[in-house]
Amino acid sequence: MYGGGTIMFTRKIQKTALAMLISGAMAGTAYAAPEVLADFHGEMGSCDSCHVSDKGGVSDDNLSHENAQCVSCHGDLKELAAAAPKDKVSPHKSHLIGEIACTSCHKGHEKSVAYCDACHSFGFDMPYGGKWERKFVPVDADKAAQDKAIAAGVKETTDVVVIGSGGAGLAAAVSARDAGTKVILLEKEPVPGGNTKLAAGGMNAAETKAQTKLGIEDKKQIMIDDTMKGGRNINDPELVKVLANNSSDSIDWLTSMGADMTDVGRMGGASVNRSHRPTGGAGVGAHVAQVLWDNAVKRGTDIRLNSRVVRILEDAKGNVTGVLVKGEYTGYYIIKADAVVIAAGGFAKNNDRVAKYDPKLKGFKATNHPGATGDGLDVALQAGAATRDLEFIQAHPTYSPAGGVMITEAVRGNGAIVVNREGNRFMNEITTRDKASAAILQQKGESAYLVFDDSIRKSLKAIEGYVHLNIVKEGKTVEELAKQIDVPAAELAKTITAYNGFVKSGKDAQFERPNLPRELAVAPFYALEIAPAVHHTMGGVVIDTKAEVKSEKTGKPIQGLYAAGEVTGGVHGANRLGGNAVSDIVTYGRIAGAEAAKFAKDH
Length: 603
Known about the structure:
The protein is of the alpha+beta class. It contains 20 helices and 20 strands. The strands form 4 sheets. Strands 1, 2, 6, 7, 8, 9, 18 and 19 form an 8-stranded mixed β-sheet that branches. Strands 11, 12, 13, 14, 15 and 16 form a 6-stranded antiparallel β-sheet that branches. Helix 6 (167-178) runs parallel beside helix 20 (580-602), helix 8 packs across helix 9 and helix 10 (247-256) crosses helix 20. The protein is globular and about 75 Å long. It starts with 10 loop residues before the first helix and ends with a helix.
């Protein structure tokens, strides 16, 4: 029922109509449609079709009511994905977490766009057309309006504000709520999850119950040694100790909240299998983010999307007093808070900033979500935070140019090999990411092919997502696969035969790859084109083992300011090991939330 109840449409009719639009768009069918959704819904009734009339506009920055109206007529993501053509990529079959945010793509008073296109490059066009993009705007771009909002005074008060809804932010929110404080979590994007929802490989942890059950012998000290070595020993040793020594507790914490972290594999740079993920090797990030989201919601966390923090507020002594927020629909307002946790991620999606610190990466694509532009770093700098290691920026070696998506390191960890256009291996596939990226860039075309068989596909559920994106080439035989990717068939067959021999002997005589889990012998065979892309910014604000942010001027903690995750520096040194990011965000997110809550209670 819409408006005053004058026009009624059944949900079935609505869903059928939408399915026709989706089908037509995917097939390239021309159809007549209003310019924007507001026009279409206006024909059905009034503004009440979407909005709450007595509020005189949108419901809130989350567009909670508006999104609920979409779902009430058209169904949820699973229903919409089921209605899409089976041979086409469906944007509704996604890894997005949290509540459904239809308005992320389906704009009411503007042309609808595909949020998926901010990361992917598979060419799917939403009905009504248009591409989604995030243009970087400096946090102080509208200083006059910000100063005016500050002069207007405090709008609301809470104990702890968390900036960012990725794994670190959600972990901090849950931890702070469990400590008995009121928490407002602010996310500038229209959907939550940050880069965490994109992480696929696993979460590194040592001396865990899952490892014991699988007969894997590991020590926290070995994890410390691997992390320091991978970071070229410029990491902060104390931060690394906290990461490793708390890693198994972090796994237990997630498990206690409903996470499945029972599958254990290996990522590059690790000397022991310690990368934990869901059963069957499913993507770890979206799973962890969803578990944390569900628990944050269950605990009554006030989560606000489309809400960008543009300034951290301080008193005359430099102590944190709150934040200035720019709501996309509600405008500027102040939240007074006793403590603030910055968990806004890095800046890999901001190539101008990336190139400033590492000119070699100018023009590189990035594996990150569109919001990873460095806002958290900017507001921290405004607040006087010290920084370190900003020049160390990691390129992930296995980015798919065709799909605009990162291919998890777990594919290599489970046994895949990397070959060049001559069909030859040219590196240890599970070396550190910096070395792997450098090796690929030396090959013809500055890209390579990830080659695996059906046994590896069946060992790792994450691969099905790449198949769904239509970026995986397949051959019933090695020779047929070679034709698909235009490499010499004889050379590729020779390479695979040699590699299988190394697996049988237990020693890689070519590149000393340490783990050789299986032969490539089960047809069909598969390949993905890969190339390096900016993936992780190792540098950021300086923190101590309590996640307190240190001042550039004094070297002491800024009272009331905490940080966790990729916005910080020191944990990973010059190069992050695969699997350490999820461990970092969960462990330090928990610590930041608990310490912020303790500070808020004491003040």
